[in-house]
Amino acid sequence: MSxxxxxxxxxxxxxxxxxxxxxxVDFMRLIEQQNLQRVQxxxxxxxxxxxxxxxxxxxxxGIYLYSMFSVKxxxxxxDFEEPVxxxxxxxxxxxxxxxxxxxxxxxxxxxxxxxxxxxxLVKLYQLRAIKxxxxxxxxxxxxxxxxxxxxxxxxxxxxxxxxxxxxxxxxSIIRQNPRHLVVVEKDRRFMPTMEMLAEVAQxxxxxxxxxxxxxxxxxENAFPDCPQHDWMDRKRAPVHLIGNLPFAISTRLLINWxxxxxxxxxxxxxxxxxxxxxxxxxxxxxxxxxxLSDQRCRLSVMNQIWSTPELRFEISGRAFVPKPExxxxxxxxxxMQTPLTQVHFxxxxxxxxxxFSMRQKYCRRGVSNLYPPAVREELTELTFKRADVDPLxxxxxxxxxxxxxxxxxxxGLVREHxxxxxxxxxxxxxxxxxxxEEGDGQESETDR
Length: 448
Ligand SMILES: C[S@@+](CC[C@H](N)C(=O)[O-])C[C@H]1O[C@@H](n2cnc3c(N)ncnc32)[C@H](O)[C@@H]1O
Known about the structure:
Pfam family, one: RrnaAD
Number of strands: 11
Keywords: Membrane, Methyltransferase, Mitochondrion, RNA-binding, rRNA processing, S-adenosyl-L-methionine, Transcription, Transcription regulation, Transferase, Transit peptide, Transmembrane, Transmembrane helix
Bound molecules: S-adenosylmethionine
GO molecular function: mitochondrial transcription factor activity; RNA binding; rRNA (adenine-N6,N6-)-dimethyltransferase activity
Family: Belongs to the class I-like SAM-binding methyltransferase superfamily. rRNA adenine N(6)-methyltransferase family.
Enzyme class: transferase
CATH architecture of one domain: 3-Layer(aba) Sandwich
CATH topology of one domain: Rossmann fold
């Protein structure tokens, strides 16, 4: 039966029964015809519904495929953008320049006016990364925001940024509206971009640009109007050091800052200032490593004597331009109200360095080098006895408390025998080791 004919309804009229009247038969035929029409109408509707469904499905699929294609196309264009043509005439960076304008805005904090993207700035100034300055730039606003968020509330606070480079983290800091931002950058090629940001930030806050080496910078002079905060106050001082650190000097910087923290100088002359810093991932893991961990080293114990370091999150090396060979860890370091020792930082540093100098050997080997050969054996034995520490333990098996008992025993012996204080078994080799640290762009094993 073809669908156009419709179903045939058959009436069986019984011979034996009463003959149907003509009117009845006509009526039945009429009903039959109406039924037939209704069925045909429903069939037409069903066909139309099917066609509409197919058309709608096709449109939705088309829209989906088109969106996927456009996103891909945009990404592709991002990677191969033409260099921007800017008219940099009078000002360091022409704000009137016909550059691709980024939306440097976020939902939180203050809204910055439209700015050229970091990528454009890097292209504009042909800022090729200098390896000796460990330059790896972060372009992703979500990541720079995340780093700044890890610092906690910085609104109305005092912030020092180390190595702002083209200014990704700087923008994220400005958006959080601190009271006073100081940026310290060694590479003068970034000064125009910093000046542009300072101009943009000017209505909201104070921003100072220092072109120089962070290793020489006196942070105690950075924030003249920051009041001193009581160290024992549960609330920390409103001072933050933030930075995507240059790898080549990050360990040295951290040890310098721990020294300042212990002596309450530099950034800690204002009170308990906190640090939010990036490190090569392995270094970040060492800073927070607990006892018995493979990563446990001098940096772990040194940090954990004066502060509570926390590895907040990791960033893949792929997020940086140019891409470093390593991933990165973001660490926050908050000074303890009551540090675990009162011994002077330099003594602590010296002893801890000796304890961890031979990681795979018994810790007594490293400690023995604190003493001149003539008294070495005798004083090493006395040190472990007074410290009540097993001299045959390996350094990574020692708790912070045990390390500090060795420090205190040594400190006591130095008081009894002042002539041993200046002894340094590595003295002739020291200069070479320090020279090697600079410029290789990576932390070396000796930095542990
Ligand atoms: C890893 S890059 C970070 C750049 C930028 N903050 C970012 O996240 O994209 C390190 C920055 O520190 C700067 N730098 C290197 N050594 C420095 C030093 N001794 N003092 C100050 N800045 C330094 C570099 O020029 C570079 O801009």
